[in-house]
Amino acid sequence: MIMLTGIEAVKARWQSIKSRCSASDHRLLLHAMNQLVNNYATQEELIEELPTALQGIFMRLVDAYLNGFWLDEGVAANPAAVLSPAMLAAQQVRQRRRMQPEPTPASEATTYIIQGLNQYN
After folding, report:
1. Which of 3, 59, 82, 114 has the fewest beta carbons under 10 Å from its own?
2. Alpha-carbon span 97 to 91, nearest angstrom
């Protein structure tokens, strides 16, 4: 599973629920999220302005923005449809880190560099 945050989480959440919305609903939700992200209005003010049918969807998008969104790697068979190039690169870096061996006490031991012995003689 991959944890997305911020706008990337909103995009991923939107992909999972957009089939329930019309184009005009999409515009209203996008406008409301822009207002929230740019601090032009509070969450409560925006909920009051939205039609009742869109309030629940808006709350899910806000939750994704504020708390993140877990994306199943199995669901993301085509991650490019949901993740930006930066998110894909970050995912690859995390995967490479997981493949690296864990440090051992010997590998974490303090290393001293000995400069030429003649310098101290």
Report:
1. 114
2. 10
For the chain, how long is the longest CA-to-CA vector? Answer: 84
Q: What is the 3-state secondary structure (H, E, C) of the chain?
A: CEEECHHHHHHHHHHHHHHHCCHHHHHHHHHHHHHHHCCCCCHHHHHHHCCHHHHHHHHHHHHHHHHCEEECCCCCCCHHHCCCHHHHHHHHHHHHHHHCCCCCCCCCCCCCCCCCHHHCC
Contact (CB, 8 A) for 9 and 75:
no
Query: pLDDT tens digits for 26-38?
Result: 899 989 988 988 8
Q: Which two tokens stand for residue 91?
A: 């995912």
pTM for this predicted structure: 0.57
Residue whose C-alpha is closest to residue 33's, from 73, 6, 67: 6
Q: Which residues lie across from 69 on neighbouring strands?
A: 4
